[in-house]
Amino acid sequence: MVHPNDLSSDEIRRRAATQQRGRDISPGAPVMSATVQGAPAGDAPAAPPGMQLYKIGIGHYFSRALALAAKLGIADLLGNGPRHYDDLARATEMHGASLNRVMRLLASVGIFEERDRGHFGLTPVGELLRTGVPGSMRSAVLLFAGVGIQDAWKELEYCVKTGEPWFRRDSRQADAFSAIAQNAEQARIFDEAMATFTSMTVAAITAAYDFSPFRMLVDVGGGNGSLLMGILQANPHLRGTVFDLPHAAAKAQARIAEAGLRARCEVVSGDFFKAVPAGADAYIAKHVIHDWDDERAAVILRNIRRAMLPRGTLLIAEGVYPVRIDQSDAGRGAAANDVNMLVNTGGRQRSEAEFRSLCAAAGFTLTRIIPTFASLSVIEGVADGG
Questions:
Q1: Are strands 313-318 and 377-383 parallel, antiparallel or unpaired?
Q2: Mean pLDDT confidence for 225-239
Q3: Domains detected in the chain
Q4: Could you tell me the pTM of the whole model?
């Protein structure tokens, strides 16, 4: 199997662009398009307002069914061609007639295709539910539509009432990522889902931003190293450091060795609320700052400011909340991701003005925001003084 990070930049760009067309995926909140949810396509008249509300209200029917299909590996079972639902039921130890009903539900939104005599096949969308195929979204579905996040959203009222994520009901000191690290299966799904989005965004970042002025880049909260590996492969002059918690750093170490990048890339473990590796002229944080409230986000950025060389550069890679939300995929994705951050991490999506204020509080001047062809921008800041 070819890993996305072993592909050329052009191939990564092609696959990322293919997945990007027709939808704007935010790592915090994959959103079904209007047509997937049953809205009319083309020139068909819009549904009456009441029916539109109803269709939104039953969205969880489809997400829960999709998560079950991902968990059972249905798409993998269909990888060699259509199969009868009874055959699928035997392979997954499910009740045949009931599985057929779920398959038909998912066929109604384009995940599977119902064939003759109880057989089902994959659609191009369903193909990405398979394990290990280029652009696979299976882990992302298991994460965002799975039991963990579904259960967390049951506490939406608590989150809106208090402004706190669901897990702070039991402990004011709790954080989402420590809990994930303690569950090996959940940590695996989380890491794979984040790597899925990174493989789609690394080409976008390297295409949009010029890394040639830098000599050393630290990826803060770099996970398994996918982003930094992609940047280093596109910029042979550059050296880098992946920095993350010990469990993530261990995975990055192995990945970097497999990619043959040990001579140019080191891995350091630690806690970015305490300190980050010092001495680089550029630091990047992808989908890190939005996980935290302003107070905690400022701590991370101040630690980066203290660690970097004079007049160093800060790069924050994540979505920028639009001035006004509309019904576009971009608007829906930003709003959905923002509320998911409220529920699951305590963080938030930020507007340009909010990024500017946050950077200033940490000792940076926001210099520019560079859009990419993916659903994120590169927010650049320069250290004040020095």
A1: antiparallel
A2: 95
A3: 31-136 (1.10.10.10), 185-383 (3.40.50.150)
A4: 0.80
